[in-house]
Specification:
Distance between the termini of chain A: 61 Å
Number of helices of chain B: 17
Structural class of chain A: mainly alpha
Oligomer: heterodimer
Largest sheet of chain A: none
Helix content of chain A: over 70%
Structural class of chain B: alpha/beta
């Protein structure tokens, strides 16, 4: 990947992010922030490569924490977002009859 | 890129998979931007993450597989466990925490690559340095945001010359970054310095910021982590990281701007001027007295009203009162009262925080209105029920130029016939500003925990038969 191609990718991705979120209703702001928080969990891939290439004990230690943190970002971001959006699904149903409590 | 050239087959499999991942991420985010398809969006994005993670095990030239596997399992298990059991009201700080972990991971990548003596030449080293700097700031900054929202840090810590300290830390971090680029593969002193100063910068930037501004701050750090990931993606020649990181970076920047705008403040203002600083003195001339009321009286008032508008705020989240409040509203609806919910863009600690909580309780969308939709309706409402909201209904924002929240759009709760404020005690809001609404002639204060008060109101309405 040459520098100029990377620059094109960067430019197009920036516009994509802006466009995707620009029409979002306020009620989805928190889940969407959480969702985008999950998406940058892709840092896991880089952390795995970094740890895979590490040699000295110091590099290995830092790389280990990198993968640990990245896995936390990805999995935590997913679980939390999924839980939030799960509620949006149920709330779409019309006011349900059985509410005896 | 690894130093050894990738075998063609494994390399192109990985590239193809990363391409698929990028498509899945963007589709997922797009689907998340509509309430109807939102839930499927996270599943699409999750599938993308799974593909990318699995295929990375086939990355050519990697070693340390046991370490990778152990870190992966440990991190994933801890995050799964904590993410599943956190209460909905604590979501903002969990997002801050997971976001900080992403920033920390980006900084770790930079550290490993730079200690290893970077293989990307001056450009690659520069990109790794920039990504590491941003990632480290996001890591320590998000950790502070988490601590503040979790209540571990109670006060905003301010000291004189704060901005100068921040600037000096930034300068020191940048200096070490430049030295690292100039002397790549050195002893590692510069990398260490870079990361330490960046971590301190994150602390110095976040400590002075008040809890009320945390939504903007978390959003900002979310965008910053995205950028850091994108920069590390450039350094590692990893297209999936570049695309995902950049998309999050730009989307997060837009979201941050939207939130700052909703508070009528610029981002610079949020970051560099302590909220409420020197302002408690100004805007202090509130006349009148606080008039308490009993829950039974409020129950009667609500039950015989034509129209009630509920204004939830952070106090409702703290008390976990959303279910009780909705139960109360259902009773009122059954009696023929028109009930609406009014949500201020920055109510709670994140944009849409209140919407998520109301959705959890099962409140239908069509009862919920945002600022522009509902502000005209307060004039015709018999009662406005303010639950743990404060600054977002303070009429001082309309009138008092000396107030720090002057100019912020507010919900016109004061224009309702009667205003009932459910509040834990007599203190001022998070910003420390006295709320003129509480002293109005048509306002009554109902003191108590929102959940307990909600139960009392339900009992009061039920008693009317």
């Amino acid at each position: 990947m040459t520098g100029i191609v990377a620059l094109y990718i960067f430019m197009l991705a920036a516009f994509t992010g802006y466009e995707v979120i620009s029409r979002v209703p306020v009620i989805l702001h928190t889940p969407l922030m959480s969702g985008s928080n999950f998406v940058h969990g892709i840092v896991l891939v880089g952390a795995m490569v970094a740890l895979g290439n590490a040699h000295s004990p110091l590099e290995k230690t830092i790389g280990f924490f990198g993968v640990l943190l990245a896995a936390g970002n990805a999995v935590g971001g997913y679980v939390v977002t999924e839980r939030m959006l799960e509620m949006f699904k149920s709330s779409k149903a019309p006011r349900s009859a059985p509410r005896e409590r | 890129m690894p130093a050894t050239p990738a075998p063609w087959s494994a390399g192109s499999l990985i590239q193809a998979s990363y391409f698929v991942t990028a498509v899945l991420f963007i589709t997922g985010l797009k689907r998340m931007s509509s309430p109807v398809s939102a839930r499927s969006g996270i599943i699409w994005a999750g599938a993308g993450m799974l593909v990318a993670t699995l295929v990375t095990f086939a990355y050519p030239g990697l070693s340390n597989y046991p370490l990778i596997g152990a870190a992966l399992v440990l991190g994933a298990a801890l995050a799964w466990w904590s993410g599943k059991r956190v209460a909905m009201t604590n979501m903002p700080q969990m997002i801050a925490l997971y976001n900080g972990m992403g920033g920390g991971a980006a900084a770790s990548i930079a550290a490993v690559e730079l200690y290893r003596g970077g293989s990307g030449g001056a450009v690659g080293t520069t990109l790794a340095v920039v990504g590491g700097l941003i990632g480290a700031v996001s890591f320590s900054g998000s950790a502070i945001a988490f601590a503040k929202l979790q209540g571990l840090i109670k006060r905003s810590i301010r000291f004189p010359g704060q901005q100068i300290v921040s600037l000096l830390l930034l300068a020191a971090a940048l200096l070490h970054g430049v030295l690292e680029v100039a002397h790549p593969g050195g002893s590692g002193v510069y990398v260490t310095g870079l990361l330490i100063f960046a971590l301190l910068l994150g602390l110095a930037m976040t400590l002075p910021i008040g809890g009320a501004d945390m939504p903007v701050v978390i959003s900002l750090y979310n965008a910053l982590t995205g950028l850091a990931v994108a920069f590390e993606g450039f350094a590692l020649h990893n297209a999936a990281m570049i695309i995902a990181g950049t998309v999050v970076g730009s989307a997060g920047t837009l979201l941050t701007q939207l939130m700052a705008k909703a508070m009528n403040r610029s981002l610079g203002n949020v970051l560099f001027s302590g909220f409420g600083e020197g302002s408690a003195a100004g805007g202090g001339e509130v006349s009148g007295s606080l008039k308490p009321i009993e829950a039974s009286d409020v129950g009667v008032m609500l039950a015989f009203a034509q129209k009630v508008i509920v204004v939830p705020g952070y106090g409702m989240a703290v008390a976990q009162a959303q279910h009780k409040i909705w139960e109360l509203c259902q009773l009122l609806i059954d009696r023929g009262v028109t009930v609406r919910f009014a949500i201020h863009p920055v109510a709670g600690r994140m944009p849409g925080h209140m919407n998520v909580l109301l959705a959890e309780a099962g409140v239908p969308y069509d009862l919920i209105g945002d600022l522009e939709e509902i502000n005209g309706e307060f004039d015709t409402a018999d009662a406005a029920l303010v639950i743990g909201a404060n600054d977002v209904v303070n009429p001082v924002a309309r009138t008092d130029k000396s107030s720090p929240i002057y100019g912020m759009p507010i919900l016109n709760a004061d224009r309702a016939q009667n205003v009932i404020v459910i509040k834990r005690g007599q203190g001022a809001g998070f910003s420390g500003i006295e709320n003129a609404l509480f002293y109005l002639d048509n306002t009554r204060m109902l003191y108590g925990d929102a959940q307990k008060v909600g139960s009392e109101l339900i009992a009061a309405v039920k008693a009317l038969g």
